[in-house]
Structure formats: C-alpha cells, structure tokens
Specification:
With about 250 residues, the chain is of the alpha/beta class. The chain has 8 helices and 12 strands. The protein has a single domain, classed as Spore Coat Polysaccharide Biosynthesis Protein SpsA, Chain A (Alpha-Beta Complex). The longest helix has 14 residues. Bound molecules: cytidine-5'-triphosphate (CTP) and the ligand C[C@](O)(CO)[C@H](O)COP(=O)(O)O. Cytidine-5'-triphosphate binds next to β1 and α3. This is 2-C-methyl-D-erythritol 4-phosphate cytidylyltransferase.
Length: about 250
C-alpha cells in the first residue's frame, strides 16, 4: 500500500484525508465517516467537496473498511487519483503514515474525513496562501465568550473570563509545503499535537490564517448529525452564495 507517488515539474496539490477514527464520541455502530447523510457516506461527501480542487488524494483508512472504500472510489470514478494507506492508532499516526507516500516539492493539505461542508473557495485560498507564505489554515472568529480554567481549579479563581479577540477556532484543510510537514511529523507525538499546525509550529512560524465559513463543522457528536442533515438540505448554490458573501465581507 505504501509506495511513493512521483511528483511532476509543476506544483501539485496533494490532499491527505485521515479517515481511520473509530468515532467514540459519536457512539454509533459504524465509525462516523461511514454514516450516511442524504444517501451517501460522510466520507464520500467530504471527498466530493475536495476532489476537484486537488490532484491526488491519500486516504488513511482502517484495513477493515478497505473493500467498502475501494467500491466507493470506483463508483466515484476516482480510483486512479486516490491512494490508500493504513491508519494508525491516533490521528497523528494516520497522518504520519500517509505523509510517507507524498513526494517533496508539492503542497499537501490535511483535511478531516468528517468535515464534508468545507467550501471550495476556502480550500483554494488555503493552497494559495500556503504556496505564498509556507503554510495556511482556516480559522473562525469566536462568536461566544470564553472562560479559562486553571489546572488546579483554584488560582486566582476557579475560572476566569479571557479576551476572546486573541483566539481563533482552527479548522481544516491545513496546507503545507510537503517537505516541511514531513520533517515536522518526524517528531515524537506530544499531547499538545491536536492538529497538524501544532506539529508544524515546533519547527516553523510562517502560518497564514484564512477566514473559514461557519458550515465547515467537524461531525463529532450525535447532535452534529442533525446539523449535517440541515446543511445538506440547503442547496449547494445557496451555500456558495453565502460563502462568497462571507468571504467578500472580510
Ligand atoms: N486513529 C485515527 C483517529 C482519527 N482519525 C481521523 O481524524 C479526524 C478527526 O478525528 P475525530 O473527529 O477525533 O474522529 P474520531 O477519532 O473518529 O472520533 P473520536 O475521538 O470521538 O473517537 C477524523 O477524520 C478521523 O477519522 C484518523 O484518521 N485516525
Ligand atoms: C484537526 C482538528 O479538526 C482541528 O480543529 C481537531 O483538532 C481534531 O480534534 P479531535 O479531537 O481529534 O477530533
């Protein structure tokens, strides 16, 4: 499964979709990426949202689902553009393994299998900014207040209000020059590595923040399936219109 894909002379866009989670917080019979929304799996919706914006996709999956995934890729006509790798125990391990088949000298995005509502405009902007700056990530401003909980729960008080203007919610796709993120992923795992930027930050500091759209939710818990159904019921055209409006207002 793990043979390196050859890069050609112009800058190619690779995309890793870590899809090897088991969905503990969802608590469903199947891992959540294989749950159906509107007749298709969440994984298929995610691939459909991104495939037209990239050259190659690397899907990190649990071997148990290989046949289902291969059938889905055949149906989608994507079998020759998608490379399967074996998922690891943590998201970090899945991405680390998938990076082994990505050549140097290309841009590589990493996008959660369970974020099917990402906007094409945001995907393109992240690749463009990563090419220009070094790395790029979609972020969302906070629209609710935040409180900080000190570790001992006592000092100076059990919880404190903090200035939310200094914070952003971090989403995916997170896009990098491939040789840099491959180098960063050679580090041993740390608990603070909750996404790919946190791994990259250890070695580099050139990260562009791209405004994201609200819809790019990560389907994690059962209530988010309800939001997923709702977002699917809004037509693609309408979502595109709302995305353009949002991006032009920033
Ligand atoms: N060993 C793992 C764990 C997670 N992921 C992927 O990382 C993304 C974000 O992970 P998360 O939402 O935490 O998914 P799960 O690990 O499935 O969820 P949970 O933590 O509730 O089990 C998902 O696309 C998931 O499939 C992965 O590829 N390999
Ligand atoms: C990568 C990520 O989606 C960025 O927001 C997030 O950190 C994944 O967190 P999870 O707890 O592994 O789902």
């Amino acid at each position: 499964m793990e043979q390196v894909i050859t890069a050609s002379d112009h800058i190619k866009r690779y995309l890793i979709i870590p899809s090897g989670g088991s969905g503990v917080r969802m608590g469903a019979e199947l891992p959540k990426q294989y749950i159906r929304l509107g007749g298709k799996t969440i994984l298929q919706h995610t691939i459909e949202a991104l495939a037209k914006h990239v050259d190659y996709i690397v899907l990190g999956i649990s071997y148990d689902y290989r046949i289902i995934v291969e059938d889905m890729l055949q149906t989608m006509g994507l079998a020759d553009r998608v490379h399967l790798t074996v998922a690891g125990r943590r998201r970090f391990d899945t991405v680390q393994r998938a990076l082994r088949v990505v050549p140097d000298g290309v841009l590589v995005g990493i996008h959660d299998a369970v974020r099917p509502f990402v906007s094409g405009a945001v995907v393109n902007k992240c690749y463009e900014e990563a090419q220009r700056v070094g790395a790029a990530v979609p972020v969302l401003q906070l629209t609710e207040s935040l409180r900080y909980l000190p570790e001992d729960g006592k000092q100076p008080q059990p919880s404190q209000a903090i200035n939310r203007s200094h914070y952003r919610l971090v989403r995916t796709p997170q896009v990098f020059w491939s040789e840099r993120i491959k180098e960063a992923y050679q580090q041993p795992f740390q608990e603070s590595f909750t996404d790919d930027c946190s791994v990259y930050d250890q070695l580099y500091s050139d990260l562009a923040l791209v405004p994201d759209t609200t819809e790019n939710i990560k389907i994690t818990t059962p209530d988010q399936l309800y939001w997923g159904e709702h977002l699917l019921s809004i037509s693609r055209q309408e979502r595109l219109r709302l995305t353009k409006k949002l991006l032009s207002s920033r």
